[in-house]
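Moderator note: this is an archived Q&A kept for reference. The question asked for a predicted structure of one protein chain; the sequence and the answer are reproduced below.
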Amino acid sequence: MKQHPVTAARLTEPELDQIRTLIENRSAILFDSSRERFFSTRVREYLEEKGLASGSELMGVVRGSSIEYEALLERLLTQETSFFRYPAVYEALETKILPEVQERKFWETPRTLRIWSAGCSTGEEPYSIAITVSEALKFAEAWEIEVLATDISRRALRHAERGAYPKRSLQDVSLGQVENYFTATKHGFQVKPRIRRMISFVQMNLVESVYVGKIDCIFCMNVLMYFSEERRLAILRRFYDALEPGGYFLLGHAETLTNAPVKFEPVVLGDCRIYRKPGVVEARRAPALVEGAL
């Protein structure tokens, strides 16, 4: 590949539009005007890193190689995550969601618990879920537990499957949890096998209609913003259909279900809002349920 001086790189608005359209056509991921500065900055960084002279040259490279296309997409997906990000969500999982699942399924054989981490990035979220389940679910060994962890990024999934993280990544993990669920290594810590075995990592683009079976709880944190309104609503319908009656849907802290095509019940737990799919025999309920209210 011909190398050019960094200062020679050119990136025009029409070229940015072409790259944006290519990504949406291939992956259904939309970088809209709200992320314009982020998008142009990341594309320019990639252009210069590869030593390419222009956006047109970059288009030629990514059109001709799926590896180069995926590498560009990796650069554009932020992959910002951490263990126990949004602590109130994990408190809701521990104190509200898991007790309800346990009560609803106690007499079932086998007792199954399936939680989907949709957009799992480098694995901190599904491992946080598995740790919470291990600590909160009574007689966890008597359950068939699966955390389905999906992401579009192959590189992120490879990182997640290794379960190895530097010490600084565990700053929000308690000392007791580090001792119980991680093994110290030369370069940091690795998640213990019994937690890693609870998780199935699968590459998936959420716009594709893939059968995942019935799910008790879905985490979809800061992922839907990457899709157009039409695709976002279609994804929400599939999430709703995948959930067990009485199952829960969890969004990022700043996200809401505006114009949702499905009837989730908002449940407010302190500063946290989660969404519940009504049970089979439940009648009409109030628009929102607030814990502790009569």
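Archived answer notes: The two ends are 68 Å apart (CA to CA).
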